[in-house]
Amino acid sequence: MTASAVDGLVEVLVFEVGGQLYGVAALDVREIVRATAIVPLPRAPAIVEGVINVRGRVIPVLDIRQRFRIAAKKLSPSDHFVLASAADYVVALRVDRVVELQRFRASDVAEAKTVLPYSEYLAGVAKLSNGLVLLHDVRTFLSQGETAALEAPLAAARAP
């Protein structure tokens, strides 16, 4: 997982989706914005809910609920988007709520496959006193095929 490691600590933005805690490396987070209308993106991979406009920039919204088989939920005004860097572009993760910026000891972060059998989309699992935080590397959230399939529809949506 790409993260800030100072004195053996890893900084993670923790958020909730469907009652489960998830996290992304704080270094990858660009900003958190209130939910706004998601515009469908024709021909995009199913994992992409659509796009949003953030200050004139078209950003794809990734569907965490679908990826982890969590029941679909209508967009709510209380939802947030976590804007994060994924290689050469920015993506939005729709979350129910942002919980906190948390520092974990590196020793409290386990490799995902040692904890969960179905974990190819997870970078690790952090242990808290009250549960687990499933950690993502936004650079690997989309498969190579999904990334390739997103390029043309996204370019069309960004064209003037």
Descriptive account of the structure:
- This protein is mostly beta strands.
- The protein has a single domain (5-158), classed as OB fold (Dihydrolipoamide Acetyltransferase, E2P) (Beta Barrel), CATH 2.40.50.
- The protein contains three helices and twelve strands; from the N terminus they run E-E-E-E-E-E-H-E-E-E-E-H-E-E-H.
- A hairpin with a 2-residue loop joins strand 2 (9-17) and strand 3 (20-25).
- The chain is globular and about 50 Å long.
- The protein starts with a strand and ends with a helix.
Keywords:
mainly beta; globular; 160 residues; 45% strand; seven-stranded mixed β-sheet; 3 helices; OB fold (Dihydrolipoamide Acetyltransferase, E2P)
CATH superfamily: CheA-289, Domain 4
Quickly give the CATH architecture: Beta Barrel
Range of strand content? over 45%
Radius of gyration: 15 Å
Q: Domains counted in the coordinates: how many?
A: 1
- Biggest pleated sheet: 7 strands, mixed
Mean pLDDT, to the nearest integer, reads 85
Uncertain runs with pLDDT below 50, 5 residues or more? Answer: none
Q: Per the principal axes of the C-alpha atoms, what is the gross shape?
A: globular
> What series of H and E elements makes up the topology?
EEEEEEHEEEEHEEH
